[in-house]
Write a structure and sequence with these properties.
Layout (H helix, E strand, L loop, with lengths): L29 H4 L3 H11 E2 L3 E2 L6 H4 L63 E2 L2 E2 L27 H17 L37 H21 L15 H4 L4 E4 L13 E3 L15 E5 L6 H14 L11 E6 L9 H9 L8 H10 L3 E6 L14 H6 L9 E5 L11 E7 L2 H13 L3 H12 L11 H13 L9 H20 L15 H11 L8 E2 H8 L1 H10 L2 E7 L5 E7 L2 H16 L8 H4 L9 H10 L1 H11 L6 H12 L2 H13 L1 E5 L4 H17 L3 E7 L2 E5 L4 E4 L4 E2 L5 E7 L12 E2 L2 H10 L5 E5 L3 E2 L11 H6 L2 E5 L5 E5 L4 E4 L5 E4 L3 H16 L6 E5 L2 E5 L4 E4 L4 E2 L7 E5 L12 E2 L2 H10 L5 E5 L3 E2 L11 H6 L2 E5 L5 E4 L6 E3 L5 E4 L3 H17 L5 E5 L2 E5 L4 E4 L4 E2 L7 E5 L11 E2 L2 H10 L5 E5 L3 E2 L11 H6 L2 E5 ...
Parallel strand pairs: 7-10, 7-11, 8-9, 9-10, 15-16, 16-20, 20-22, 21-23, 22-24, 27-28, 28-32, 32-34, 33-35, 34-36, 39-40, 40-44, 44-46, 45-47, 46-48, 51-52, 52-56, 56-58, 57-59, 58-60, 63-64, 64-68, 68-69, 69-70
Antiparallel strand pairs: 1-2, 3-4, 5-6, 5-11, 12-14, 13-14, 17-18, 18-19, 24-25, 25-26, 29-30, 30-31, 36-37, 37-38, 41-42, 42-43, 48-49, 49-50, 53-54, 54-55, 60-61, 61-62, 65-66, 66-67, 70-71, 71-72
Helix pairs in contact: 4-5, 5-7, 8-9, 11-12, 11-13, 15-18, 16-17, 18-20, 20-21, 20-22, 21-22, 22-23, 22-24
């Protein structure tokens, strides 16, 4: 065969070029994959003959006319093979397109077809099929070689090391070609020794010759082509079955769609809301119901999340018709598990998708995405993202919050929802394989059109109901289908454990058979010997944060090289090459599926629990293994060992809601379904309930038990679907739950009860419609069904079922169908005419605010009226608007009209309480409306209005009242929300108040105040006493001249004659205190004289300032006689209540020994000082004076405390306990405050009644000791308790000993503590003292934190030297040493390691924001530290995290989930 002259050239990396076949599309296999894109362009250009034809392989035209302008418009080969017409292999194979990128168009170039700019002789012939310009290919783009026929599957394994290496090599080849050679995005000439000079007019996919591209366009071209190259390697390497590693297929050949559902809500919700079915993955961008720039794909392991992303990548690379990716210009797909430590999304794209090419940098990537006409970003596997809980914000977190890529569609795949989601996020979930998808997969991948083989596989699945749930997982079903088809001895499995054991055996048998072939590797590992793997798997899933991957070297070290290679060949292990942040490559290993990890972990649990003589706490063993997360660990363990199974089932008895799951575990333990039939029958003899609030595990367990019951013919007495019913799938004859689970086997259910939610909120207002077809299909499916009940306003059942639609068999069976709507109305379906009959006498109805609820209620009311059924009560709940007199109907706030009221006996109209300003507008009911309403309701006996929202007429003139109304004597009442009930008197049309001495509150809202004044005036006119009038933060002053209270709104309160108690409430909480309100003596006395019936007045609030006294001569004699109780409470926290004494006009404190707190606010301090002065003057002891972060110093000269505001506390004579509180939390620590010996002694002497003084806070530093001779004898005699607690985390309280002036120490914690030492000298001295105390007491110190305080290590490495010169000796109780903000050179670093060697308990050393040596000679690191497992971390200011490899002496990137957080 003739060869192209350029076919023997060396590629830039030195590898010989593959053959120059004309079919060089990217869909070819690995023999084509090593070819550089540039070589492809050049060879294709030479094969084109510009003089009117195509040149053959040996044609001389290739050399004769190499100087001509061969214009080739390069575009990637198009999509699906069936859309491409085969042609001669010598014809051109490039697409010509008229697309242009406006963002990258040269100013001087026309946006027309670039072919127009050259001569007509330079045009390329176009091939047109349909609406697209496409190339002609000799073969299909993704055609498999004939000798390798696919065994398709719906799932994909991660890319092997070899596959990723191929992708990276290809990208690197293109990158190296840029330095001195022509390349896809560059215009530099290739070296003469390797390639002929490229024609400058060669066209690109941007529609321009290469030499006319701008630098931006070149980068964009390379970027897109590099993405396509990378994705192609990914989607061409699908491995459906673990142990068949030599057959890897294109994803499009094996992809079978499972189920997709979405949550149709306006706001993202984390609950178990209603889910609706999505037709296909192709609807993800076109379906308007989930249109958003943020979408979440949820799915459990093995449900195909990654496979969907690969299919989308295939669609994008090949522009598949009908795919949402067809018109996307840029597609970014990142595997989240690879992004450890990478905060920039652009850096991640550069590292993982572009390789080592230097031409496209982060800024270029950002510009390309930003300026592209359409871009989509897919972040695959958020649940595996190492930095999802990082305290430092990453670009991924910014994307979720819409702070980045705000207008770019982003898809996130995950097992669970992130902590934060933007409100516009739409949720889509994968529900796995239903029966249709399973059939499609079997036909497509296993048996083809062999219907007999298809029926055999389906029968084998039905014979194994215990596998029904497991085979919902596409990845597991693939293995089941192939094993069931290939093994003639396939058996019926009595448990999942049996199936899994059988499947593992098949893996090993396949490997053994393969090893017998010539020139193959021999594997000799016993399939039953895997104890080390069992332990590794158990440790992986028993952690709080489960470990999902391991390093290859670490796993080989733990398991052994031979064992590792055997399980890699089995397909149980999967390798993946990961590019680290610094572009180094590492190989990580994981299980093919989590089920394998659970299988081997269960073996280790069995080993632990079956050891003789050992008592193991199951609570501790399963502490981080919840059944809903790892249900098969429990089930496998029960199936592997009967005795262990008994222990686990007994353990599960202590957990609520695990009854069904315990039966499944019992089924595994017995290994025989007959052994558990007693339990299944016991469960089915009562009511089997599936609740909407149950976790998915419990629902699944119940569904599996129903499957077993149906298979064994066990009757289910009653099945109750409690708030979990979604719909009946007529096509598949099954009930779909809101969780996505399906009930397919209902043949033995006798009674089905379906209850819904009460739907009290607007978000729940969408009902569940049950159509006629669904209802009839449900009856047909449940063969033994005798009764079905729907309960709840959530359901919308058909108004009737046409008689012609009812099969005769259903009429014969006479199934009882009832619907109770939670209003007390029960409807029963009549099979004779298909109509509903109401069976409830005098039901009650409630009409809420939601419009859909109102529609349902109106239909219900119309039906009851038509049937002549009385409605005992009709409740209009916050929905009444007015009564339309003209049309004789009630108008609701939604605009709906209530016209049928003939059968209503009691009408209850409730409104809002109107606590807020927005609710201030009232609803006025006129006399005409009220009378018209009575006349419309013929059977009405009572009407009640409740709420301050309504404004009823003050009276109804007697002449307006029809005689019929007086005769009927309808009870009309109005409760205004203040505890007062008014009833209309039909004789005179006046309201009578039925409440004695009502109490009401006047708030700050002006309209509320207006209503209250009218109400008060009415009560005053009627002479009705008001038990209590509460002015809630609305009192302004008392106008002595006009004898009225002026409110904050300016309104005046004049009718106070009948008020018995007046409560003036003010500010008592936190925040900004209102302006000061001073009540003078004249105002107070005038207020008391105005209220004739007043018995008590209370002022409560920090804004009120009453007179310090009332001179006796100003007090009228009548005041003394009436003895009105006047009290004043400034702050309830203080506990001080003052009461006015009418004999002398002085205030008496009714509280003994109040407590006062002085905060940081200046005004608060002023009021507190006045309070303290008054108490001191009255000689009232203060039980505790708390200076809350406001102490500055003690002025010994003036014998007073100076506060941070410069105010002075002088009245300390009556204080019993002084609490000086400081900083004890997080944040910036205040400046140091030193309390000298003189200040401390002076403070103690000033407070004559002082019994105790406490200092708490990191900012306070008391003297290290007080010389005994300087202590006054009086202080020793008083024995005042002086304590000092620097930081509660330290767990040390110091107390002064008056005998010697030294501090005694008390340990206040039972467990471990942490000690922080900062840079101040006093701080370091006290820190050293506390360390000595804790070390002597043997208290474990979790962390010793030297914050800017570390200096060096002594020469003998026995002590740490602090910046103040203090030294810390070797401590044997410290577990972690953390040093921050210090430069550490190599010598000091080695000294720290030597010091750590002496401190035997230290396990971690952390250098935080420090400069440390780049590497350390491993020989200088003490071997003892390596044996001890010491971990040394380095957190530089740049945000990365590193761990020191003690064996090699260099720093490695650290992934937080593997280390200590």
């Amino acid at each position: 065969m003739d060869r192209d002259p350029g076919d023997d050239r060396e590629l830039p990396d030195g590898n010989p070029s593959p053959g120059g076949d004309g079919n060089l599309g990217p869909g070819r296999h690995s023999t084509r994959r090593g070819r550089s894109l540039m070589s492809w362009m050049q060879r294709s250009a030479r094969r084109y003959n510009p003089f009117g034809g195509t040149s053959g392989r040996g044609s001389s035209h290739s050399s004769q006319h190499s100087h001509q302008s061969d214009i080739i418009h390069i575009q990637r080969p198009l999509h699906r093979a069936d859309e491409i017409a085969p042609t001669s292999r010598d014809e051109p194979m490039f697409e010509v397109t008229d697309d242009h990128d406006d963002a990258f168009t040269d100013e001087g170039m026309s946006a027309t077809d670039p072919m127009e700019q050259t001569g007509s002789e330079d045009r390329i012939t176009r091939v047109c099929t349909g609406d697209d310009w496409v190339p002609r290919h000799h073969s299909r783009p993704n055609e498999l070689s004939q000798d390798t026929q696919p065994i398709p599957g719906p799932s994909t394994s991660s890319h092997s090391v070899e596959h990723l290496r191929q992708s990276q090599q290809l990208i690197d080849k293109q990158a190296r070609a840029s330095s001195g050679s022509l390349n896809p995005v560059g215009g530099a000439a290739r070296s003469q020794s390797t390639e002929p000079t490229e024609d400058p007019h060669t066209m690109t996919s941007l529609g321009k010759p290469l030499h006319r591209l701008t630098e931006k366009q070149k980068k964009k071209l390379f970027f897109i082509e590099a993405l396509r190259t990378r994705y192609k390697v990914d989607y061409d390497k699908v491995q459906p079955i673990p142990y068949i590693k030599d057959k890897l297929y294109c994803v499009d050949k094996v992809y079978v769609e499972g189920g997709f559902e979405f949550m149709p809500t306006e706001q993202v919700t984390r609950g178990s809301g209603s889910w609706e079915r999505l037709e296909s993955y192709k609807s993800l961008f076109s379906d308007r119901r989930i249109q958003s720039v943020r979408r979440i794909f949820e799915g459990e392991p093995g449900y195909g999340k990654t496979t969907v992303t690969l299919q989308l990548a295939y669609d994008w690379c090949n522009r598949v018709e009908g795919s949402p990716m067809r018109d996307v210009e840029v597609l970014i797909i990142l595997r989240m598990r690879q992004l450890s430590g990478i905060r920039s999304i652009y850096r991640a794209i550069e590292v993982y998708l572009l390789g080592s090419d230097p031409r496209v940098e982060e800024a270029d990537i950002a510009a390309i995405i930003r300026e592209s006409r359409s871009a989509v970003v897919i972040l695959d596997g958020y649940d595996e993202y190492p930095d999802q809980h990082s305290r430092r914000e990453t670009d991924v977190q910014r994307i979720l919050k819409l702070d980045l890529f705000a207008s770019t569609p982003v898809i996130l795949t995950t097992r669970y929802l992130p902590d934060y989601l933007a409100p516009i996020t739409r949720r889509v979930r994968l529900t796995g394989f239903d029966e249709i998808a399973r059939d499609e997969y079997i036909r497509k991948a296993v048996v083809g059109e062999d219907k007999i083989a298809l029926s055999i596989i389906k029968a084998r699945l039905k014979e194994n109901p215990v596998l029904e749930d497991l085979c919902q997982v596409p990845l597991v079903f693939v293995m089941f289908a192939h094993i069931a088809h290939e093994n003639q001895d396939f058996q019926n499995f009595k448990s999942v454990t049996e199936f899994f054991r059988y499947m593992i055996r098949c893996f090993h048998e396949h490997l053994k058979n393969k090893s017998k072939e010539l020139n193959t590797v021999r594997y000799s590992i016993d399939e039953n010997e895997h104890a080390a793997l069992d332990k590794l798997a158990f440790l992986a899933i028993s952690q709080e944060n489960q470990q999902i991957t391991w390093s290859r070297d670490g796993m080989c070290k733990q398991l052994g090289q031979d064992f590792y290679e055997t399980y890699l060949a089995l397909g149980i292990f999967v390798e993946e090459e990961v590019v680290s942040y610094n572009s180094s490559r590492e190989v990580e290993v994981r299980f093919y599926h989590k089920l394998f990890c659970e299988w081997y972990a269960a073996h280790h649990i069995v080993y632990i629990l079956s050891q003789p003589g050992q008592s193991v706490s199951l609570d501790k063993l399963f502490r981080h293994m919840k059944p809903e997360d790892v249900q098969y660990v429990y089930r496998f363990a029960c199936g592997l060992n009967r005795d262990v199974g008994s222990s686990i089932i007994q353990y599960l008895r202590g957990s609520r809601g695990t009854f069904q799951f315990r039966i499944l575990c019992l089924l595994e333990k017995s290994g025989d379904a007959e052994g558990t039939l007693v339990s299944v029958r016991s469960l089915c003899s009562g009511t089997v309930t599936i609740k909407g609030g149950d976790n998915r595990l419990l629902q699944r367990s119940t569904v599996q038990l129903l499957d077993i019951a149906a298979t064994r013919g066990i009757l289910v007495s009653s099945l109750h679907l409690d708030q979990c019913f979604s719909k009946f799938d007529v096509t598949n004859a099954c009930i779909v739950l809101k969780s996505g689970l399906r009930l397919t086997n209902l043949k033995t259910v006798k009674v089905l009860r379906v209850t819904g939610r009460f739907r009290e909120t607007v978000s729940d207002s969408k009902g569940i419609e049950v159509s006629r077809e669904e209802l009839l299909g449900l009856f047909r499916t449940c063969e033994t069904l005798k009764e079905i009940r729907f309960e709840g306003r959530e359901f919308l059942l058909p108004h009737s079922v046409p008689a012609e639609m009812i099969p005769p068999t259903l009429k014969t069976r006479n199934i009882m169908v009832s619907y109770e709507d939670r209003r007390g109305t029960i409807h029963q379906l009549n099979w004779d005419d298909g109509q509903w009959q109401t069976t409830t006498n005098e039901p009650s109805l409630r009409i809420p605010q939601e419009e859909l609820d109102q529609q349902w209620a109106l239909e219900e009311l119309a039906r009851l009226t038509t049937d002549g059924i009385l409605v005992s009560s009709l409740h209009l709940e916050q929905c009444f608007s007015k009564f339309d007199v003209t049309n004789a109907c009630i108008v609701l706030k939604s605009g709906l009209r209530l016209t049928i009221l003939k059968t209503v006996k009691v009408l209850r109209v409730t409104g809002r309480i109107r606590e807020t300003v927005g609710d201030c507008k009232g609803i006025e009911v006129t006399r005409l409306e009220l009378l018209g309403l009575f006349q419309k309701c013929e059977t009405l006996k009572e009407i009640r209005f409740e709420g301050r929202e309504f404004l009823l007429p003050h009276s109804v003139p007697a002449e307006m009242i029809p005689p019929t109304l007086k005769t009927r004597n309808i009870m009309v009442s109005y409760e205004d929300g203040r505890g007062m009930i008014h009833q209309l008197n039909w004789d005179d049309g006046q309201w009578q108040t039925t409440t004695n001495e009502p109490a009401f509150r006047i708030s700050q809202e002006e309209l509320d105040q207006q209503w209250a004044l009218e109400e008060l005036a009415r009560l005053s006119t009627d002479g009705i006493h008001v038990s209590c009038l509460h002015l809630d933060r609305c009192f302004s002053k008392f106008d002595v001249t006009n004898a009225c209270i002026v409110l904050t709104s300016g309104l005046r309160l004049t009718n106070l004659k009948t008020v018995k108690v007046l409560h003036v409430g003010g500010f008592t909480g936190t925040g900004t205190i209102p302006s000061r309100i001073e009540v003078t003596r004249e105002e107070l006395l005038g207020l008391l004289q105005t209220c004739e019936t007043l018995e008590e007045i209370r002022f409560v609030g920090r804004e009120y300032h009453l007179p310090l006294s009332v001179p006796a001569e100003l007090i009228p004699p009548t005041m003394k006689t009436t003895n009105i109780k006047v009290s004043y409470e400034r702050d309830r926290e203080h506990g001080v209540i003052h009461q006015l004494n009418w004999d002398d006009g002085q205030w008496q404190t009714t509280t003994s020994e109040p407590a006062l707190r002085i905060p940081q606010e200046v005004m608060d301090q002023q009021w507190a000082l006045e309070e303290l002065a008054r108490l001191s003057t009255d000689g009232i002891p203060v039980s505790c004076l708390h200076l809350d972060q406001c102490f500055s110093k003690f002025d010994a000269t003036n014998a007073c405390i100076v506060l941070t505001s410069a105010l002075r506390v002088t009245n300390l004579k009556t204080v019993k306990v002084l609490h000086v509180g400081g900083f004890t939390g997080t944040g910036t620590i205040p400046s140091d405050i030193e309390v000298t010996r003189e200040e401390l002694l002076g403070l103690l002497q000033t407070c004559e009644t002082l019994e105790e003084i406490r200092f708490e806070g990191l900012e306070y530093f008391l003297p290290l000791s007080i010389q005994a001779e300087r202590m006054p004898p009086t202080l020793k005699t008083r024995n005042i308790k002086v304590s000092y607690e620097r930081y509660r985390e330290h767990g040390v309280v110091h107390q002064l000993n008056w005998d010697d002036g030294q501090w005694q120490h008390q340990i206040t914690v039972d467990g471990s503590v942490r000690v922080d030492i900062f840079q101040g000298k006093l701080d370091q001295q006290w820190g050293k003292k506390e360390l000595a105390v804790l070390s002597t007491a043997g208290v474990s110190i979790n962390r010793l934190y030297l914050h800017r305080s570390f200096s060096n290590i002594t020469d003998n490495t026995q002590s740490i030297i602090l910046t103040s010169g203090c030294t810390i000796p070797v401590l044997h109780t410290v577990r972690e040493l953390r040093i921050s903000y210090t430069d550490v050179d190599l010598e000091v670093f080695l000294r720290i390691l030597a010091y750590t060697k002496e401190c035997t308990k230290i396990t971690w050393i952390i250098f935080e924001y420090c400069n440390v040596p780049d590497e350390v000679d491993a020989k200088l690191i003490p071997h003892l530290l390596k044996q001890r497992g010491l971990k040394v971390y380095w957190f530089p200011k740049t945000g990365e995290e590193y761990i020191l490899d003690l064996g090699a002496g260099n720093w490695k990137k650290w992934r937080r989930q593997y280390g200590r957080d």
